[in-house]
Write a structure and sequence with these properties.
The chain is an alpha+beta fold and 195 residues long. The protein folds into two domains: 142 residues, Jelly Rolls (Sandwich); 47 residues. The protein has nine helices and eight strands. Helix 1 packs across helix 2 and helix 5 packs antiparallel against helix 6. The longest helix is centred in the last third of the chain and has 24 residues.
Length: 195
């Protein structure tokens, strides 16, 4: 499989690429494939790169009292800028693949060089970053203020793709509820729909 086309396809969503730009993107050696359960980053490590999920799903979590607490899921087209990479401190959380993934890696320096060479990409990078941080912040703010059932309903509404690709116990952790509570909520919603 030629992973390089994934990055070309990603940029093509935002702009029409010239043949030269396509060639340069394809020549960058920045795309890696990962297996399910592979780690991109572990607690205590220093992140050396940022990530862009081209295919697959990644979870960000930390361990509290021996229990996994999932903070975020990243899927297709989501960039991941680990706090550790930005503040140059050891990571306080883990990033691991929920399913097989194809991921582009990057550094500030490499991005800077690319943008100097192709300044017309600058607005795209800004747009992508702004849209993602706004989307995630609004979703997380909503989750904090809602009842468990409303949190699940919000997830169905905003991120339905996760329901078919992420195990239920991980969804429960992400929503901050116990797996058995999630089971009860799902049964209630399902029986309400059948009426």
């Amino acid at each position: 499989m030629d992973f390089k086309n994934f990055l070309v396809d990603y940029f093509s969503q935002y702009m029409t690429l010239s043949d030269e730009e396509i060639q340069i993107i394809r020549n960058e050696d920045i795309i890696r494939s990962y297996n399910k359960n592979d780690f991109l980053l572990k607690e205590g490590q220093y992140a050396q790169v940022c990530f862009l999920v081209l295919k697959g799903c990644v979870k960000r979590y930390y361990i509290e009292d021996g229990e996994e607490k999932i903070v975020e899921f990243y899927s297709e087209n989501d960039p991941i800028s680990p706090a550790s990479y930005i503040n140059k401190e050891p990571s306080k959380y883990y990033l691991s693949c929920v399913e097989p993934c194809i991921i582009s890696t990057g550094t500030e320096e490499r991005t800077q060089r690319f943008l100097e060479k192709f300044p017309r990409f600058v607005p795209i990078f800004v747009k992508i970053g702004d849209a993602l941080s706004a989307k995630n912040q609004l979703f997380l703010d909503d989750l904090k203020n809602l009842s468990p059932e409303d949190r699940y309903q919000k997830l169905i509404q905003k991120r339905p793709d996760l329901l078919n690709r992420v195990p239920q116990y991980m969804i429960a952790s992400y929503l901050g509820i116990k797996p058995e509570s999630l089971s009860r909520i799902r049964k209630r919603i399902w029986s309400g729909k059948k009426k």
